[in-house]
Design brief:
Elements: E1 2-7, H1 24-40, E2 45-49, H2 53-62, E3 67-68, H3 78-85, E4 93-98, H4 102-112, E5 125-133, E6 136-145
Parallel strand pairs: 1-4, 2-3, 2-4
Antiparallel strand pairs: 1-5, 5-6
Helix pairs in contact: 1-2, 3-4
Length: 151
C-alpha cells in the first residue's frame, strides 16, 4: 500500500479554524506539490481530505475527485487517520490531506514505531509504502518533499 501524507498548504490565520482558507502562497505551494504528485502517483489513487477549507483547497489542486472525511478534521487522532486510509490493507494508493500535529505523529508511528511530535512542513508530503518481505511487514519511506524543494 502507498500512503501519501500531505499537509495542507499555508493558510490564513483566524477563526473559526475549519473555515481558514489558503493564502496566495498556499495556493502556489499546493499547485507545485500537485504537479509533482501527478507525475509520481499510480493511475488509481484515492484522495481523502479533512473537512477544513484549507485541506479541501489543497486537495483540489490535485483533483476534484476526493472524499471529505470528518474523522480526520483538525485534532484527529493518528488512529482515526490510519483508519480512514485503511492502512495497511488498501489495494489502492491513498493521498491523505490533513493537519499537524496529527500527520507528524502518524509519520513517526509508521517510521519509528511510536508516536512522536514530528513536524511536517506546510504543503509537504511524506510518501510511505507498506510491503511484506520474507513474511515480515516493512514500512518503506519513499519520499519526503516540501514545496520549496520544487522551485
Amino acid at each position: 500500500m502507498h500512503l501519501i501524507l500531505w499537509r495542507h498548504a499555508e493558510a490564513v490565520e483566524g477563526v473559526p479554524d475549519i473555515e481558514r482558507e489558503l493564502t496566495r502562497k498556499g495556493h502556489r505551494q499546493a499547485a507545485k506539490m500537485a504537479a509533482w504528485l501527478n507525475q509520481q502517483l499510480p493511475a488509481h489513487v484515492r484522495v481523502i481530505t479533512s473537512p477544513a477549507q484549507r485541506a479541501i483547497q489543497t486537495a483540489s489542486a490535485l483533483t476534484d475527485n476526493f472524499d471529505v472525511i470528518d474523522s480526520i478534521a483538525p485534532g484527529a487522532s493518528s488512529a482515526a487517520v490510519l483508519g480512514a486510509t485503511a492502512w495497511p490493507g488498501s489495494r489502492r494508493a491513498v493521498v491523505l490531506v490533513g493537519h499537524q500535529p496529527t500527520l507528524g505523529e502518524v509519520a513517526a508511528l509508521l517510521v519509528a514505531g511510536r508516536k512522536q511530535p514530528w513536524s511536517i512542513k506546510k504543503g509537504a508530503v511524506w510518501w510511505l509504502t507498506h510491503r511484506v518481505r520474507d513474511s515480515k511487514a516493512q514500512i518503506v519511506l519513499r519520499a519526503v518533499i516540501a514545496p520549496d524543494m520544487l522551485d
